[in-house]
Each structure stands twice: as C-alpha cells, then as structure tokens.
Design a protein that fits this description.
By secondary structure, this protein is α/β, with parallel strands linked by helices. It has 19 helices and 14 strands.
C-alpha cells in the first residue's frame, strides 16, 4: 500500500473529526475534563513516561457518559417523546440514566442479573424518577437481546453501548482531551475493550491527529471478543465468557467497532482475570486509585509490553471506578491464585488425633498459612478428606510443599488446575 493510499485510509477510519468535535460541544457542562496524571510508580518500573487518563473520576465514574449523552441529546423530539432503552452491565446504564434525568426523557435500563448491587443502586441514583431498571439474563448479551425486543414492541430508541456512530463520537472526546493535555508525542495508548466503542472513538481521533501513536486494545482473557473477531476476520459470538470483568464481558464485538478496530489497532492483548485483580490491588495500595476490573485492564497489559515501551511515552486509559466493595475478597483471592500464592488441595489423612498437627508441623513451612479448612467426617472409615487452602509467602514455595506432602505419604489432589472440581468445592 502506497503512502498516499495509507494516508487516505487513515483520514477516513472511524467516525469523522467533525462528529467528535460536535460531541465535545454537546458534552460541555455535562462531562468532566478528567485528569491526565503522570504516574511515578509505573514510570519507574517500566522505565517509561506513563500517564493515566482518569475516566474513573468522570461524573458517573466512567467514560460511558460521553457516548450515551451524545447519542441521546441528538434524538429527534419524537424519539425523545417515545423514550429510550438500553442494555448494560452498569457503566453505560449509568450514562443513559444520567442523560435521561438531565434531558427529561423516560428510559428503561435492562441489566444482567449478575450486575453488582453497587452499580444497580448508582443507576437508580443517577436516573431517579426518569428510569426503570429491569434485570434479565446472566450476561450483557442476554440483556441486550431482551432490550432490543422491548424496543421493537414499544417503539422506543435503543441506545447501543458501543456499536453506534454517535456513541463512538462521544467516546472519541476522551482522545481529544488527551491530545490537549499531553504536550509531547504519545508513542502508545492502551485502551480497554468490551464491545469496542471506546477504542473506536480513540482510533477515530488519533489516526488523524496523532497517526504515529500505537493503539493497543486490551481485553480480559475470558471475554476476548474483539481479538477473536480480528483472528476470524469477522465478528463472532463467543460460546462462553467469564463475566468477572463485567464492564468488558461481551460475547460479540460490534460490527462498526470491529471494522474500525481491525484496521486501527496496532495490537490486541488479552489479560488473565487474576492479573487484573493484582492490578486493582496495586493501584489502590500504591496510588490510592480505586478502579473496577475493566478500569484496570490498560495498566494490566503493561507487563506484556515491558521491553517494547521502555523509554516511550505511554498513556493508560482508566475507564471506570464503579467497584463494589463486597467484591474485594474475591479480587484478593483471584490475585493470590494468579500470583501463585494461594493453593487448594483435597487431602485425605487418618481421622485420628494428631493428623492435623502432623500437617501443620511437618508439612507446612514456617511462613505457610492455612486460610481455608473444611473437614468431612466419614463414619466407619479410617481416613477422611479435607479441603485445605494454603497461602504461601513466595510462589516458589509450592514445589517444597508438594514434596513434603508426598514424602509424608499424604494422599492429596491439587484443585487449582481443575476448574470444574475447584468450582464445585470452593466456588
């Protein structure tokens, strides 16, 4: 492809700059111009200049307000009269709810039944008496199908969370702000992907105004719909997804967003959910930044690009902070397992006094800690199983623990690598 054709492709990729500029006007006084912060801890670790775009500090604590409001405010008077409907795991719902309240439009919000209570309460708070919440299905895609059905039945306008040009234009205002806030060329920008609306908005702006910036799309490993679409050269519905990173747990990428992302992304990166949890804890402990799982995706990807970004200027987009405090135990648990510090076993040992003492004194090392223990009494049997959770000081200590179990002739089964048995016993 010649430079001339390449330049033509770049200037037409995504929605137009005119549409993004109009969105920025529409959002004046509605969406915050969020902080753009240099992060010293990450910059030191990766030997790069790393900045965080803090959409976690947006009015509704995520970037989703931008696209939702830009779409809703441009509806015709008749469409506004008929009302709107959307499907969302939380953040888009809050953006639509806020828009409905501000514009005096009636709206229905269809949310998966798995949505954290904190997000449901926030949606109610932002929408007040203008919205009705409907819980349906286990995933975003289930909720979306039902919302489309209601939209057709009631002649209301469906506000898509990502596959809509006005929504994409609204999300693109994030990139306009970044360019205005950063006075040096940006080498890399890491953007979380659920359905691809934010990434498509960023591509629409940067491929024209900062074409040398490499845009990296980051997805959770358990719901990598955009990566799969790019690999298959078409959008495809994943058979199963892990809903943990709820703000990015989408089975199928958008048609419009796929077209934009497949051309505009330099790379995609999938991040294990446990790695995301480690990042959440690190951002909180080191920088007092509270993010939801989807909000941690961009920073989580940096380890996989450590050599590539050294000496470069890098932007990580923190997409949201709508995290339910009740999830923190699960977040810590997933992090410990990912880091190789938490391990579960089914251990069979004699049902006699002193058996547990032998496990503690002879098998566990000084720094090992039993964090979970469930013993099952079996009548008329000499041995009985116990489910034991052990937290190690260092992941390298697992090898010694396994050696001591075998050396003392303890019959055991390791659960961490058996997802089905693990979910039955621990989940």
């Amino acid at each position: 492809m010649t430079n001339e054709l390449r330049d033509k492709k770049i200037t037409t990729l995504g929605v137009s700059l005119d549409e993004v500029n109009l969105a920025q006007v529409n959002l004046k006084g509605v969406a915050k111009k969020t902080p753009f912060d240099y992060n010293e801890n990450l910059s030191r670790q990766f030997e790069a200049n790393i900045y965080l775009k803090r959409e976690d500090l947006q009015v509704v604590r995520s970037y989703k307000l931008r696209g939702a409001y830009n779409k809703t405010v441009q509806l015709t008077e008749q469409e506004k009269e008929n009302g709107v409907i959307c499907a969302s795991a939380g953040n888009h719902a809050q953006g639509v709810a806020y828009s409905c309240y501000q514009l005096g439009i009636k709206g229905k919000i269809v949310m998966p039944t798995t949505t954290p209570q904190q997000k449901i309460k926030q949606v109610k708070w932002f929408g007040k008496n203008q919205i009705e919440i409907i819980l349906h299905g286990d995933t975003f895609d289930d909720a979306s199908a039902y919302a489309h059905q209601l939209s057709a039945e009631e002649n209301s306008t469906f506000i898509h969370p990502f596959d809509d040009e006005k929504v994409i234009a609204g999300q693109g205002t994030v990139a306009l702000e970044i360019l205005a806030q950063c006075d040096i060329p940006i080498d890399y920008i890491f953007v979380p992907i659920g359905g691809g609306g934010l990434a498509s908005g960023v591509i629409s702006v940067l491929k024209t105004l900062s074409p040398n910036t490499k845009i990296i799309g980051v997805e959770p490993s358990g719901a990598a719909c955009m990566t799969e679409a790019i690999n298959q050269n078409k959008t495809i519905a994943l058979a199963k997804i892990d809903p943990f990173v709820d703000g990015a747990a989408v089975k199928k990428a958008g048609e419009k967003t796929y077209e934009i992302c497949s051309e505009g992304l330099a790379k995609t990166c999938t991040v294990p959910e446990g790695k995301v949890c480690s990042t959440i804890l690190r951002l909180y402990n080191e920088d007092a930044i509270v993010v939801e799982p989807a909000g941690a995706l961009s920073v989580s990807a940096l380890d996989f690009f450590a050599d590539e970004i050294k000496g470069k200027t890098v932007v990580c987009l923190l997409s949201g902070s709508n995290n339910d405090i009740t999830r923190m135990e699960e977040i810590k648990e997933r992090s410990l397992q990912y880091e190789g510090l938490k391990h579960y076993f089914i251990i069979s040992f004699p049902q006699r006094a002193g058996a547990l003492k032998e496990l503690v004194n002879d098998i566990l090392s000084e720094n090992d800690d039993i964090t979970y223990f469930q013993y099952t009494q079996k009548n008329n049997k000499e041995t009985g199983p116990a489910i034991v959770g052990i937290e190690l000081e260092k992941k390298e200590d697992l090898e010694g623990l396994i050696y001591r179990l075998e050396n003392h002739h303890f019959d055991y089964q390791y659960l961490n690598t058996d997802s089905t048995l693990f979910s039955l016993m621990i989940g």
